[in-house]
Amino acid sequence: MNWRIAQLAPGDDFPPVSQALPALSPFPGLLAAGGRLDAATLERAYRRGIFPWFGPGEPILWWSTDPRMVLQPQCLRVTRSLKQSARRLLRNPAVRLRIDTAFPSVMQQCGAQRAASGTWITPEMLRAYTALHARGLAHSFELWEHDTLKAGLYGVCIGRMFYGESMFTTIADGSKTLLMALCGFCLRNDIALIDCQQQTAFLAQMGAGPIPRTDFIHRVEQATQRPPVPSWQYDESTFLTDCAHWL
Questions:
Q1: Rounded CA gap, 153 and 148, in Å?
Q2: What is the tens place of the pLDDT at every residue in 148-181?
Q3: What is the spatial order of strands in the sheet that 61-63 belongs to?
Q4: What separation in angstroms does the CA of 78 have from each of 63, 138, 142, 183, 244?
Q5: What is the model's pTM?
Q6: Residue 176 falls in which region: left (phi positive, over 0), alpha (psi -120 to 50) or beta
Q7: Residue 153, SS3 per DSSP
Q8: What confidence tens digit (pLDDT) does each residue in 2-52 have?
Q9: N or C: which end of the chain has fewer CB within 10 A?
Q10: Is 118 helix (H, G, I), strand (E, B) or coil?
């Protein structure tokens, strides 16, 4: 079968997500190639349930997978061992959780941890998402020990919809503890869904599950129309409150 996708010139609109390649194709969910990778295009893509994903030397590739892996914050699965790890981290006076103080560094370290197997976090991606961060639409959750960044995750938030992108850690359960904090933050700010994009065993272990793309797009359309989160300021008491739901 001759599978075809849309070829975009800079400034072209995205085709309907229903035109993405189907499950039995070589690249399920691939919607389009080309176009422009900048903050405005990223925002337009996320509002439609579309995300970029491509490697070094490849054209810009845009995806809308079906089904879509999502995590409802209240469904985060926290094991007994993860609770113990998180408590140890929280008891360490040198450990601090921060938001949006080192967004580019979080992206760079996410890419560095995946460099051996190939990473999509190219310099082009870094520039585009850093510009989106400057618009207040991309955010990083960070775990620091003294002045060293030990773990991080980043994603996009439009209205009351959060799209998770990547995470890294250099300490045991660091990124999972940040995921706890993110889910607590989402519950506190009435964010009902975290997009996880791809189905993986790790995400399933943490409580995520697939939903049909039609349902996902409907949820996205509703959530992105809502007012944005009023504040991304964070302090230690907020961290404890957000994690207390599971501890």
A1: 15
A2: 999 999 999 999 999 999 999 999 999 999 999 9
A3: 6-8, 30-34, 61-63, 51-52
A4: 30, 26, 19, 11, 12
A5: 0.95
A6: alpha
A7: strand
A8: 789 999 999 999 999 999 999 889 999 999 999 999 999 999 999 999 999
A9: N
A10: coil
